[in-house]
Specification:
The chain has 416 residues and is α+β, with helices and mostly antiparallel strands. The chain has 2 domains: 246 residues, FAD/NAD(P)-binding domain, CATH 3.50.50; 124 residues, no CATH class. Helix content is 31%, strand content 20%. The protein has 13 helices and 21 strands. A 5-stranded parallel beta sheet has the order 6-2-1-10-21, covered by helices on one side. Strands 12-17-16-13 form a 4-stranded antiparallel beta sheet, with no helix packed on it. Strands 15-14-18-19 form a 4-stranded antiparallel beta sheet. A hairpin with a 2-residue loop joins strand 7 and strand 8. Helix 9 crosses helix 12. The two termini are 17 Å apart.
Length: 416
């Protein structure tokens, strides 16, 4: 095949030496690294605009990263920590903050260590980033859906028809398989599997729980559960959750997803700041004519949400105070499993570590790199997801540039 395949429907022009597929944080960062290396690069995005999931994340305040000791930060990535370590050592929380500042966006650190842009929103950061890419000569194309390979060339469905490109290096940053409406639909998985790429099955991460509530709980929908600690298996989480019509959702539940996927039972400590003996002592105070709910509310300062949860999952409540105290400290939560994968904030599974070399290049497809959430790793919310997407995009982009500049770039033998 002629290695100078033209981009049809876009006014002609020589094939870019590098193509990045996917306009999320990992893809944008890979494109920046290639552009900084002076390599002509085309960035193709299936949706009408770039950074859609980033913009969605920024609606409630864009959590860029987490400012904490590096070993604590790395621990959040679980079994993938050793794989991601060099990427995060090169571009971790400190480097993310410095990079954001180079885009003219100041940052601040909240009381929990979470780092946000001063503007809180993602849109100013994204605008500045796209302007930088334009300045580096990155050619951006939206509504370009990658359809796999046509022979040795990348195939795209575009508004102008089918396009074939044969670049020297390619970075795939196609996201996971959650929030399909924002572009992460996992449609790339069978395309890679057909080429002999090892994949781990997709599974929801940072997902809410399905709960079939009793009728009285309808009055509590929308209430936040505060001041509690959730436990599942070896994992625990001190955070909030919301009682919704569909179940339980929120930052207190999401970190437990790995254990819940494996079937670990879930329980909640309704008063994590009180020891069992203290709970028992307070409950033993005379209650007079007060109802049990009123007594618990006053003695333990249980709010309506926690009281409702106790009634929902604890009835019939133990008659003895010691048994009731144990229940309050470890209330089992009956649920119907995780919410569907497309509703999850992120996923586990994807391109297996064994399928990639140290530069995130596919062993089965020389010259093709992968980055971001399509890799088989997971992490809780709180800045960990975005940091690893940026770090892996940077890593893959730099590795792709190094391959090209060393004269090794070639996608001509993508067939296994």
């Amino acid at each position: 095949m002629d290695r100078r395949v033209r981009v049809t429907g876009q006014g002609g022009g020589d094939t870019p030496r590098a193509v990045v597929v996917g306009g999320g944080p990992a893809g944008l960062m890979a494109a920046e690294m290639l552009g900084r290396a002076g390599i002509p690069v085309l960035l193709a995005e299936a949706k009408p605009s770039l950074g859609r999931k980033l913009l969605m994340a920024g609606k409630s305040g864009l959590n860029l990263t987490k400012d904490e000791p590096f070993d604590d930060f790395l621990h959040a990535y679980g079994t993938a920590a050793d794989w991601l370590r060099p990427m995060l050592e090169a571009f971790g929380p400190g480097e993310v903050q410095d990079w954001v500042r180079t885009l003219g966006q100041e940052v601040f650190t909240g009381s929990t260590g979470r780092v946000f842009p001063l503007a809180m929103k993602a849109s100013p950061l994204l605008r500045a980033w796209l302007a930088r890419l334009d300045g580096l000569g990155v050619r951006r194309r939206s509504r370009w859906r990658w359809t796999g390979w046509d022979g040795d060339a990348l195939g795209f469905d575009t508004p102008e028809g089918e396009v074939r490109i044969l670049p020297e290096v390619t970075v795939l940053a196609l996201g996971g398989a959650s929030w399909a409406r924002l572009g992460s639909d996992g449609a790339w998985a069978p395309l890679l599997a057909e080429r002999g790429v090892e994949l781990s099955p997709f599974a929801p991460a940072n997902a809410g729980l399905c709960v079939h509530w009793s009728e009285p709980m309808r009055a509590r929908f929308g209430l936040p559960l505060k001041g509690v600690r959730f436990r599942a298996g070896r994992l625990s989480s001190r955070g909030e959750a919301v009682i919704s019509s569909r179940g339980l959702e929120g930052g207190g539940i999401y970190p437990l997803t790995p254990a819940l996927r494996e079937g670990a039972p879930l329980c909640v400590d309704l008063v994590p700041d009180l020891e069992h003996e203290t709970v028992l002592a307070r409950m033993s105070r005379p209650r007079g004519k007060a109802s049990l709910s009123t007594h618990l509310r006053k003695a333990l300062r249980l709010d309506p949400a926690r009281l409702a949860l106790l009634q929902e999952f604890g009835r019939p409540l133990p008659a003895d105070q010691a048994g009731l105290a144990r229940l309050i400290k470890a209330l089992p939560i009956r649920h119907a499993g995780l919410r569907p994968m497309d509703e999850a904030i992120s996923i586990a599974g994807g391109v297996a570590r064994a399928a990639l070399d140290d530069g995130l290049m596919l062993r089965a497809l020389p010259g093709i790199f992968c980055a971001g959430e399509m890799l088989d790793w997971e992490a809780p919310t709180g800045g960990y997801l975005l940091t690893a997407c940026l770090a892996s995009g940077r890593w893959a982009g730099r590795a792709a540039a190094a391959r090209l500049l060393s004269g090794q770039g070639s996608n001509a033998s993508v067939r296994p």
